[in-house]
Amino acid sequence: MLDKRYILDNPELVQQNCEARGLRADVPRFVQLETQCRTLQQEIEELSRQANVVSKSIGQAKDEAERESRKEEGRRLREQKEAKQAEHDRIAAEAGAIYRSLPNMTHPESPRGGEDASGEIRRGATQVVPMRFPVLDHVQLGEQHDLIDFEGGARIAGHGFYFLRNEAALLELALQQYAVETLLKEGFTLAVTPDLARGEILAGIGYIPRGPETQIYSVENFDLNLVATAEITLGGLYAGEVIDADKLPLKLCGISHCFRTEAGAAGRASRGLYRVHQFTKVEMFAFTLPEQSEDMHNYFCDLECQIFDGLGIPYRVLDIASGDLGGPAYRKFDLEAWMPGRGDGGEYGEVTSASNCTDYQARRLNIRYKVKGEKGTHLVHTLNGTAVAISRALIAILENCQQPDGSIIVPEVLQKWVGKERIGAPRAEEE
RNA sequence: GGAGAGGUGGCAGAGUGGUCGAAUGCGCCGGUUUGCUAAAUCGGUGACCGGGGUAACCUGGUCCGCAGGUUCGAAUCCUGUCCUCUCCGCCA
After folding, report:
1. What is the Cα–Cα distance from A362 to A367, expressed in whole angstroms?
2. Which nucleotide, over all strands, has the C1' atom closest to the CA of A45?
3. Which end of chain A is more exposed for a tag (fewer CB within 10 A), N or C?
4. What is the mean pLDDT of the segment spanning A146-174?
5. 3-state secondary structure of A240
6. More confident residue, A183 or A224
């Protein structure tokens, strides 16, 4: 959420920002309602003050008649207060609906416009080399080497679920190990997090469970939801806390399963593992001082690049355009890996993303920091980034590492965990 | 899952209807004392939302896990809920 004070002081900027993000929001209406709320709030506080004075005087009143008349006055004041409060609450509810729909402000350098406006800012160390043989996609490769069982997944849980088998299961573990090893060297604190979370935590991060079109699976009869990312649990971990400033920045990484309904996503390019209902992800999360968040954002992006460079996968990095940013993000970088089997002759597909959410999530989750010796507290900044999302990384690995002979070379950094250099026997040289 | 106990300031811990934002101790900040350190001693020390002031500061409201309720008035009484602890049950 944005700072209400900031909205009142800068309504034009906020309105422009909504437009840049392709959202309709009635900022002037919010300003009007919020101003009314503040006036009412003051009237309510004044009535409360008077009632408090009366209440305190009752204890000291000597005779019974006096006591009764003051009680009556107290009752009257509280009733007036209640009436004002009801009016206040009604207006606040309308203001709140607009307020919650307002996205974070946008980094000045983020490209303005829709999805197509996102700008490439970087390429990976590995070049895209054209493959001079019939290229298979990961679904075909998975079938050929008995790596992915979509039919089995569908039988158990429906479309969008799958079994990883044999080397694909080993690759899942290897990718987790590789990502974690990389992050531990960088001083991240590692956690395996809950795969379910309460509704209020999801809402704090910016998800809306149990609504129409929700991306979130909910558990019947419990206030529990399957998490869509460990960002939810890692960010929620410090909800309501005040962190010592000298402990910042806090760098966490979490391993979790991620569950997404993908409501409304039918029809989009979603063959095979690309858009599934469950996958495993190693996520980075940071709590920082405000002045540290921009550097941390670049650092997350660097780490994501380092991980994919290490795998030898070609990729590009996009600075996501204003119109394609989610609500909490101030700026977002996506890594798109080259997927030779995607589309017609290969396409880039999103594999990771890193967002700087500034104080937007922290305000909602009430996560603050305190500088020792200084008065008051301030909101932290939060950032999240994907270290590795297994399902999409698998697509990139299988498709990029396929050989003319049909086998798949295991990226060198993963070989120690997979236990082999190659999936499938190299086909004998043609005579 | 069953039975019991409990959740109070940064921490520990008093407080069972008004004079309680809350004793006391620890911690922290500042002063005094001291050759340094330590000790002693004095004073100060919560958060959030408003109003006033250039500012130091003054001032109103709210907050005793959370949400409701009773009452003129709730940390205190009632209901629900979450969490913690002990015992029992179950279980990888």
Report:
1. 5
2. B61
3. C
4. 95
5. coil
6. A183
**Nearest amino-acid residue to B62, taking CA and C1':** A45
Q: How far is CA A237 from CA A232, A254, A353, A418, in A?
A: 8, 11, 21, 33
Q: Which helix (H) or strand (E) holds A134?
A: none
Domains and CATH numbers, chain A: 4-101 (1.10.287.40), 115-430 (3.30.930.10)
Q: Which nucleotide is nearest to A81 (CA to C1')?
A: B61
Query: In the structure encoding, which two tokens stand for residue A345, read together?
Result: 């002759």
How far is the CA of A267 from the CAs of A30, A262, A271, A395, in angstroms? 37, 11, 10, 19
Q: Could you tell me the two tokens for A43?
A: 């009237």
Question: What's the predicted TM-score (pTM) here?
Answer: 0.92
Over the stretch A203-214, which tens digit does the pLDDT of each residue have? Answer: 888 888 887 778
pLDDT > 70 in chain A, percent: 97
Q: What is the pLDDT of residue A431?
A: 41
| Token code pair at residue A54 | 């009366």
Distance, Å, A222 CA → B82 C1': 13
Lowest mean pLDDT across A267-276, A319-328, A409-418: A267-276
pLDDT digits (tens, 9 = 90+) for A112-155: 999 899 999 999 999 999 999 999 999 999 999 999 999 999 99
Distances (CA, A) of A186 to A33, A190, A238, A284, A351: 47, 11, 21, 11, 21
What pLDDT sits at residue A426? 79
Whether A11 contacts A31, CB under 8 Å? yes
Q: Which residues touch strand B (CB under 7 A)?
A: A 4-5, 38, 41-42, 44-46, 48-49, 51-52, 54-56, 58-59, 70-71, 74-75, 78, 242, 368, 372-373, 375-377
Cis bond before residue A249 (omega within 30° of 0): yes
| Spacing of A17 CA from B53 C1' in Å | 34
| Cβ contacts of A216-220, under 8 Å, gap ≥ 24 | A216/A259, A216/A260, A216/A261, A217/A259, A217/A261
Report the nucleotide nearest the CA of residue A42, measured to C1': B50
Burial of A344 (0-12, 13-18, 19+ CB in 10 A): exposed
Residue A220 DSSP symbol = T
Q: From the CA of A239, how many Å to the C1' of B86?
A: 29
